[in-house]
Known about the structure:
By secondary structure, this protein is mostly helical.
Amino acid sequence: MDPADGLIDHPHDVYRRLRDTAPVHRIAGTDGNPAWVVTRYQDVRDALTDPRLSVDKRHAKEGNYQGLTLPPALDANLLNMEAPDHTRVRRLVVRAFTARRVEQLRAPIRETADRLLDALGPHGTTDLIASYAAPLPITVICDLLGVPDRHRRDFRVWTDALVAPDPSRPQDAKAAVVAMLGFFGELLADKREEPADDLLSDLIAVRDEGDRLSEDELMSLAFLILFAGYENTVQLIGNAVLALLRHPEQLDALRADPKRIAAAVEEFHRFEGPALLAIRRFPTEDMTIGGVPVPAGETVLLSLAAANRDPARFPDPDRLDLSRDTSGHLALGHGVHHCLGAPLARAETEIALTALLERFPELALADAEPRWRRSLRARGLLALPVSYSGKNS
């Protein structure tokens, strides 16, 4: 049996086997084409900053796994760029995600969280993904970009179709891409007609006045911010709640000392971060990773999830420990491609968990076996059924 068998259904078990027996291992990607998966912490960390490993698809050899296939209007984004284009485009948007800017967003995020919890009522049962973990980040990122309310539910359906496609319905992913192209084209036209005080209007002004973004770059950047700003945070919130409910001693410790929430979020990132893999990379020359020769142009997948549970870096790594030293975890990447929205994702998760735990002292799983999405790319829940009760219920 190939040691990578079961990677989608039981990723942590498989990554443990690979770290022990084949830390740089050739697998089949979701499209059936080959790729190398790297699982040990030091190998992954070193590779994330190795200039010979490029995210630019022009370095890819035909017949290897290349990840999502998107049209140019959505594909000309930071995940596929190297310097100098990456530097130029990232500089235009990074100011929207600084720690100082995110601090200004904390009050509106808390207001949104409280409104969603108000809608649940004082007690009952709910799918916490659908009622809370998903609508919170989609509201925050859409408000930041200036996306109208009427499009927000559609966008969740589209992202789900891309991240965890149903093999029996391949047309859904294609339909989602077509729908998003139409959506972003219409949205950009509307913003040009009526600019507002939002990030997308600012980016359009940069494009139209300074010509520092191509039209494809503008649309692709809007897509990436909305896609990643929603997708990663909804999964992290859901994964964190599940981890706490499965580790009641850690939940009790957090309730006893709510000021530990920032450190706790870093442990949630390490323990069950939403990104299983960094964006695929392609060697620009023949090279060796972890003692294994990897030819130029072949696909390299760096497993952030495996690295974050490497016992050589994090003792007893399969145990959730909110007091752990998580410094150096790779859940948000490392190097020039470190997650642009990391400050916002951290703030949203801290606020979401704080508001939830304050509101409902009694919170429990309503399903002993929550279902995970079948995805090589993202670790997240299809649903999280819980029962809840407030202080005065």
